[in-house]
Amino acid sequence: MKPSPDAYLPLDTLLQPETELERLLLTLPEFQQGLRWGEPRFGHPEGLVVYHVREVLDNIDRIAQLPGADRQRLRLIALAHDTFKYAEDRGRPRNWDQHHSILARRFMERYTDDPFVLDIIETHDDAYYAWLGARPGCTAPGARSLVSLLHRVGHCLQLYYLFFKCDTQTGDKVQASLKWFEKNVLGIEYVKVREG
How far is CA 185 from CA 145, 158, 163, 190, 195, in A? Predict the structure, then answer.
């Protein structure tokens, strides 16, 4: 399947960066390569990572009464979270040290020392893996426990939840993991992402 014509538009036109750091990231070759990688697949019918990132950014914009600092953090997380899927090790057995989230965190450590941003980038898929692990008889590779996830992101739990919601409510992703998270995690303030 050929990418749509707007796939060749400048990334800043597609993603509308708002800060100097966002603008800088969009000029970096490895970031550009990652944003233009992908093809339609389950969970990501939009194909290219840049389209998914655009959807996540749109969801961030739909959160009512989001403080400016949290919005900036969420935007930075959105830009980086899946951008290194192209470099991920897809061999078997899976090398979890080469998961796209770890690669993204390592890359972003050059540009920010914000633990909220870095920790959420690194663990952004772990709520989904915790949901998989909680299912009866689960033997899914990469399954995590909710307890270990909450221990890891307790310092930024609400922001983690907001990103998980904005990321999960894209494409044709199954919403069961998000509903499970909202039901089972204490200490989060439920947020509705307004319809666009």
Answer: 12, 10, 15, 10, 24
Q: For the chain, what are the domain ranges? A: 7-184
DSSP string for residues in 177-189: HHHHHHHH-TT--
Rounded to an integer, what distance in angstroms lies between the CA atom of residue 75 and that of residue 106?
18
Mean pLDDT by 10 residues, the chain (196 residues): 61 96 98 95 89 97 94 98 94 87 98 98 95 76 79 97 97 94 95 78
b/e map of 125-136 (b: 16 or more CB within 10 Å)?
bbbbbbbbbbee
Q: Which two three-digit tokens encode residue 93?
A: 């057995």
Please choose, from the candidates 35, 13, 147, the residue with its C-alpha nearest in 3D space to the C-alpha of residue 81: 35
